[in-house]
Amino acid sequence: MTSEQSPRVGSNALPKAKTCHxxxxxxxxxxxxxxxxxxxxxxxxxxxxSVCALKGPGPLTSNFQSxxxxxxxxxxxxxxxxxxxxRLCLLLRRKRPAILHSYTTxxxxxxAVAGRAAGVPLVIMxxxxxxxxxxxxxxxxxxxxxxxxxCMTMPSQAIKRFNIERLGYPPHRLVVVPxxxxxxxxxxxxxxxxxxxxxxxxxxxxLIGYVGRIVEPLKxxxxxxxxxxxxxxSGVGFEAILVGEGRDKKKMEELSRRLGLEGNVAxxxxxNEVPCxxxxxxxxxxxxxxxxxxxxxxxxxxxxxxVLATDVGGNREILKQGVTxxxxxxxxxxxxxxxxxxxxxxxNKRVQVAARAKTWVAEHRSAGIxxxxxxxxxxxxxxxxxxxxxxxxxTLTEHESxxxx
Length: 405
Prior knowledge:
Blueprint: E1 18-23, H1 30-44, E2 48-53, H2 61-66, E3 70-73, H3 83-95, E4 99-102, H4 105-117, E5 122-126, H5 136-148, E6 151-154, H6 157-165, E7 174-176, H7 183-189, E8 207-211, H8 221-233, E9 239-243, H9 249-258, E10 265-269, H10 274-278, E11 283-286, H11 295-302, E12 307-310, H12 315-318, E13 326-328, H13 333-344, H14 347-364, H15 367-386, H16 393-403
Parallel strand pairs: 1-2, 1-4, 2-3, 4-5, 5-6, 6-7, 8-9, 8-11, 9-10, 11-12, 12-13
Helix pairs in contact: 1-15, 3-4, 4-5, 8-13, 15-16
């Protein structure tokens, strides 16, 4: 069995159980990319897969369809179109899945209400981030939805701690299922022609990269730009590529111009060939003020690209200081500039750390390993369903300790 394969469902699980995976939209994001990696492994494990979005078709609809999955969309308009709950309920009653697994807050809310109204036996939610942004009324809605569900998955212990401490959720109904990457797929994606990039990497000039949404202050791009300004002022030579879109992109482009970084920093916008763009980086920087468990860090590590990230959320669960990457205090451009300079001046150590990180990802964060954790959870819940029991504290706690060991 290769690292990207997952074991067959055990004989005690329901054969060919139907699962429906609920998204907000078919957008290009970390959740959608994660599902595209994990769902084929679930299907090989004996689960029937369908995918549904609260909104209309999007850029990744065809990607899910190309994998042979049945896809649906509920054509929701805006953030608060309550009609999607009714439409989802009708869809679930027609398709009759054994498991409804929703992802991110709006999908969790809609899935919990529609899933219970439609009589779906197992309603699993998924929290993908540390949601400091929740307002009091949103906390109330979230707690109500949580009571309707069976359990909630999340990719890091940091998110689990947040849900226990901030939202008061019982630990035994929170299950850590780590993100995974398809190492072979990412390596294939990095083998693009040089001409597909904006311009070739310049020799002997360190190339720094950022990949992600441009949303301030959450993603910390303003901090990164100020750190790059300090690097330039101190005489460190570098180039930087910033890949991504977001509501604050124009604001960050203006900040870059004000700091005089036009000759050093290039905003590339949203790009499909991210592995190709990352392959020549000397350092990927993740300057966020909050992170759940960033997929881009795992993708870079799988390519053998060194990663420096802020010490927030789940970052320290995948980056061990000086071993598989580097961590720096968040929100401090001076500290970030110094950390980048320290990493860049030790090329041999960068190579060693990147090699260890690549091995660690293959051994602990492959898509097959992530899918196997989901299969274990599904199997355990389905066995309890067969025995006409509800999830117990002992069962889910034991499941997590097994899959995290």
